[in-house]
Inverse folding.
């Protein structure tokens, strides 16, 4: 599966949208998903991504060890080592596809990045 490093413009900003929730390895939600290298529990968090004149909500997977203390909705953060992995599968005869986002950690920013003054 292709892992693509996400390049961000200097004007890119992220804001926490939801508290992180555990990611599960099975549909029954009986086993937590873990990082293959470190064994850390994986969490999913919704971030609002803003760049130039657009904004969108992204669900990003982050190891629990990569989440800063004090994380709450509305706070500015920056994903570190952000990668995108395209995926597709057929379920009940229907094609589903999308992009899975994964970051090594989230850095809590003390303030939102300033836009260039004109």
């Amino acid at each position: 599966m292709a892992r693509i490093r996400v390049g961000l413009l200097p004007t890119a900003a992220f804001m926490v949208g939801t508290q992180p929730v555990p990611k599960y390895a099975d549909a029954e939600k009986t086993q937590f998903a873990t990082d293959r290298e470190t064994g850390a529990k994986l969490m999913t968090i919704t971030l609002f991504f803003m760049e130039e004149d657009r904004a969108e909500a992204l669900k990003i997977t982050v190891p629990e060890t990569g989440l800063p203390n004090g994380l709450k909705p509305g706070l500015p953060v920056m994903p570190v080592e952000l990668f995108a992995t395209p995926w597709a599968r057929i379920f009940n005869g229907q094609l589903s596809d999308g992009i899975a986002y994964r970051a090594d950690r989230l850095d809590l920013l003390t303030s939102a990045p300033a836009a260039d003054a004109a």
In short: DSSP finds no helices and nine strands in the chain. The mean pLDDT is 91. The CA atoms of residues 11 and 20 lie 25 Å apart.
